[in-house]
Write a structure and sequence with these properties.
Strands 1-2 form a two-stranded antiparallel ribbon. Strands 3-4 form a two-stranded parallel sheet. A two-stranded antiparallel ribbon has the order 5-6. The protein is about 45% helix and about 20% strand. Helix 1 (about 5-15) crosses helix 2 (about 20-25), helix 1 packs across helix 3 (about 30-45) and helix 1 crosses helix 4 (about 60-85). With about 190 residues, the protein is an alpha+beta fold. The protein folds into two domains: about 5-85, Orthogonal Bundle (Arc Repressor Mutant, subunit A); about 85-180, D-Maltodextrin-Binding Protein, domain 2 (3-Layer(aba) Sandwich), CATH 3.40.190.
Length: about 190
């Protein structure tokens, strides 16, 4: 079963007419009929009842139609999902911060980031500096993050963050697209 077969089936099921479905798919009627016949053969069920005057869905066709639509919708979204992942716009971001920063810069930074990248799951963790550094060291030792010192102002992810007021460390996954994003290292 392939996406073209599913698209042909959905077109026929929605049009309930082979001529209109063929026109919608920009093919002639014989190839459309072959696609449907091949799909029914693979599934070993009859999806459509055909008569010289009409086309209707069988019980199997009615059950298959919403799933075929769902698969086609997911297939249409897949390329953009891959591009978002390559740009670092999906996944998870863990932010470790020290005590009082929760009352100053962290809420604004996280809010702006979530607006810019709603597909990224953000987790906040308040800890002491030594615990945060230990966590970074363990992850760095395991090869799962890269740690870089970044001087202020820190501009990452196309201005998603407002400028920080003190030097910061940026730890990223080794394979994330963020590592190649522009980072300002201009000294104050």
């Amino acid at each position: 079963m392939d996406l073209r077969q599913l698209a042909c089936f959905v077109a026929v099921a929605e049009e309930l007419n082979f001529s209109r479905a063929a026109s919608r798919m920009h093919i002639s009627q014989p190839p459309l009929s072959r696609q449907i016949a091949n799909l029914e053969g693979e599934l070993r069920v009859r999806l459509l009842e055909r008569s010289p005057q009409s086309v209707s869905l069988t019980a199997a066709g009615r059950g298959f139609l919403p799933e075929a639509r769902r698969i086609l919708a997911l297939a249409a979204k897949a390329p953009e999902a891959a591009r978002r992942a390559q740009r670092g716009e999906t996944g998870a971001l863990r932010i470790g911060f020290v005590g009082s920063t929760i009352y100053t810069s962290v809420p604004a930074l996280v809010g702006r980031f979530r607006q810019a990248y709603p597909q990224v799951d953000v987790t906040l963790s308040s800890n002491g500096a030594s615990a945060i550094l230990t966590g970074l060291f363990v992850s760095w030792s395991a090869g799962t993050v890269a740690v870089e010192t970044v001087e202020v102002p820190l501009t990452v992810w196309i201005d998603a963050f407002s400028p920080c007021v003190r030097p910061s460390w940026l730890a990223t996954s080794r394979d994330t697209a963020v590592r190649s994003a522009p980072v300002s290292t201009r000294k104050r």
